[in-house]
Structure formats: structure tokens, C-alpha cells
Design goal:
Keywords: Signal. With 192 residues, the protein is mostly helical. Helix content is 76%, strand content 0%. The chain has one domain.
Length: 192
Amino acid sequence: MYLLVCLVFCLKIVAGNDQTRFCENYASCLHNLENAQRTCPEFNNKIDKFEENASCNITKRRLIAEEIANLQLRRTEVIQDCVKKNSLNGISFLSFHQEHRCLNKADKVKKYVSSHGSESGHDHLTKRKKRKKKQQTNECHRQRKFLHAKCDQIAMCCSISMDCHLSARLIQQQINDLKKELKALKKDCQKS
């Protein structure tokens, strides 16, 4: 009987350590996403495609796009802080197969981040370097998009991630509202 109790206790400790590791992987992924959000330009230059006129306010579109980027960064920071603070409170809920998949996802992110180091875009802007800077900007956006998708997948492995996402729901609502406003402004620019 004593042996059975010790075995159950040891299994709970191991399961708790795995859950902590999954939440730490999620926090690490969010940290990498935050770095990508900080280094990528806040808004896309596609806004300049339309001429400024009465129904197409490019300046307002730029400001809204910048505000969305700032809120996305803030949301990532809030979720990351929550996960770091509560990672020890996670409970184990994954099967062996699910744990294996979660570890593989985290490894993919680590390999991706190590092979795609952040490049500085503070070069002198000659014609050739301008093209290179645009390519770097596009690559930066691809990296950010990849990390966002992978972090969402890794979040499924951490039991506290849903609670942490709920703590950022007001920020997410602001992002959604601004995206709707930006979409409406974009339609106005396309009409004119």
C-alpha cells in the first residue's frame, strides 16, 4: 500500500514538471513572438497604395495600423506575464501521444528561431539596400506570422493558457474593433 501511494505521488510530481515545462515552452514562444513584434515595422506600406482624398484618409489608416500593432504587442506581454507567473499552477491533462506532439511543436519553434535570427534593418538606404530592406521586412512579417501560429498551437499544451488569454480579452476586443474600423477605411479608399 505504501509503495502504491509513493508511486502515485511520484507520477503527480513528474506530470506537474511536464506541465510546467509545456507552460515554459509557451512562455518562451511568446517571448520570441514579442521580439518579432518589436523588431518588425508597426504597419505595412501597402497603405500608401491609395491617394489621400476626402474619403481615403491614409494618415488615419496609418495611425490605426500602428495602434493595432501596439495593442498586439501589449496582448502578447500580458499573456506572457500571466503564463510565467502561473506556470507552476498548471495541471497535467495530456495523453502520452499529446505530450510527444507538444514537445515536437516546441522543438520546431526553437529550431526556427535559432535559424532565423533577428536581422537589423538599420542600413544606409541605397537603391539595392532599399530592396533588401523590403525583403527583410517581408521576412520579418513571415516570422511573426509563423511564431503567432506556433504559439497558438503550443498554447494548447499549457493548461493555464486559456485563463491567461481571458486576462487579455479586453485588449483583444480593442484590436478587433480597430481592425473593423481599418477595414471600413480600406473599403472607402477602394471606392474612390
